[in-house]
Amino acid sequence: MNQPLRVAIAGLGGFAHTHHEALRALEATGVARLVATCDPTLTTLPHTIEEELIAREARFFPTLEELLSRTPDLDWVCLPTPIPFHADQHRQVVETGAACYLEKPPTLWLPELHQMLEVEKQASKATNVGFNFVGDPFRREFKQRVINGEFGPLKSVRLFAHWPRTPAYYLRNNWAGKRFLDGKPVMDSPIGNACAHFVQNLLWMAGQDCIDHVANIVDCEAETFRAYEIESYDTVFLKATLQDQIQLKLAVSHTLREDSAGEAQSDLELYEFERATIEFPTWRSAKIVWKDGSKSEELVESGWRDYRDVVRENFLSYARYLRGETERPITTLQDSEPFVKLCHDSQHSPKGIQDFSFERVKTGASGGRSVLGLESQMRNFCL
Q: Of all helices (H) and strands (E), which one includes residue 203?
């Protein structure tokens, strides 16, 4: 019988909390166990968290450096940490010989990803990057049907995502909305962070060679805008040509919506094939429409119900890989390169980041900003 994998998680709050929840589910079945965690705010956290860690027999440290130096024989380290820390922390984990589960995005600066890929050559096991939706069995079944040619050649992949954020989103840490932090590129953006899963979905579905293949970028053109007072952009219109001449279009914004929905999120993935169109109106549901009407419309839903299922199942998949039951993680660092290139290129628009005209911007009670006519403009661009 396999011994539980020895796991450490960097962080206790924020998205690290979701990692702890997922690992508790694996602990319940004996797959893995938490042996250590770290957080610089440890002394200010509620006593209940400390009590829980003691009950789980997990050691806790103020820094990742101390955790790694004082916790031998780790099998796996989770890094649900701020994007600017990813490259250095990934290096630290690889140097210990432990496997690394790195939250998305690995980085948003292409030269840094290339540095990380050099470090990865020394890894004992391949790093998994947390682009979690591509691991959903219902999406992987779709991808296999694509590879089998059931829908005909893929012509285009498109994304509309209006995910409103208020100023609090950009004030939650010292890097949100930034292009640089202390002189180092961060390149935060809607497609690089909040909507990153959707962008990776497009690139992964467009990879035609095998189920794990992610399509490469041939060329990319973007126009970027901002309504908020930030360094980076909060709205992007982007088109790209992928390998096999597949066309990609996306329109993504963090501005408020003009209608009564206000801060409600709206998104749609659309895949145009020769014989059918597949729409994902939510991350966990899809609709197939056959162009010649020869088959009835097909509705399919994921068995994953919420984001706790998503992370738990991705953890379980990585555990299977570490135990030698599968050949590779769901998403490797190398698989992330087209995504990082797309985000990197979006920051180098020929016109630079443009401010929306004063006349179009309206500020709501929360301080959130909407842009007159933007949602229609976004839909017309990509749908």
A: helix 196-206
The dihedral sign for the CA sequence 149, 151, 157, 161: negative
CA 172/CA 169 separation, integer angstroms: 6
User: What are the two backbone dihedrals, phi and then psi, of residue 75, each rounded to the nearest 5 degrees?
Assistant: -90, -30
Q: Rounded CA gap, 137 and 140, in Å?
A: 5
Which residues, in sequence order, are CB contacts of 216 under 8 Å at separation 6+?
A: 242, 243, 337, 338
| CA 297 to the chain's CA centroid | 30
The widest CA-to-CA distance across the chain, in whole angstroms, is 67
Residues 6+ apart with CB under 8 A from 199: 159, 191, 250, 339, 342, 343
H or E element in which residue 156 lies: strand 154-162
Domain end, chosen from 90, 114, 132, is at 132
pLDDT for 260 equals 64
- Cα dihedral 358, 363, 368, 369 in deg (nearest 10): -30
Q: What pLDDT, on the 0 to 100 scale, is given for residue 52?
A: 79
Which amino acid, 171? Answer: L
DSSP H helix total and E strand total for the chain:
11, 19
Are 253 and 369 members of one domain? Answer: yes
| DSSP three-state, residue 325 | coil
- How would you class 4 by CB atoms within 10 Å of its CB: exposed for 0-12, middle for 13-18, buried for 19 or more? middle
DSSP code, position 356: P
Q: Are 58 and 67 a contacting pair, CB within 8 Å? A: no
What are residue 305's DSSP bridge partners? none
Which residue would you say has higher pLDDT here, 322 or 53?
A: 322
In 3-state terms the chain splits into helix, strand, coil percentages (rounded to 5) of 35, 25, 40
C-alpha to C-alpha distance for 154 and 140, rounded to whole angstroms: 16
Per-residue pLDDT of 215-270, as tens digits, reads 999 999 999 999 999 999 999 999 999 999 999 999 999 999 987 666 889 999 99
27 domain-assigned: yes
pLDDT at 312: 95
Determine the structural domain holding residue 42 and report its residue range. 5-132
pLDDT of 208 reads 92
Same domain for 107 and 199, yes or no, is no
Do 125 and 252 lie in one domain? The reply is no
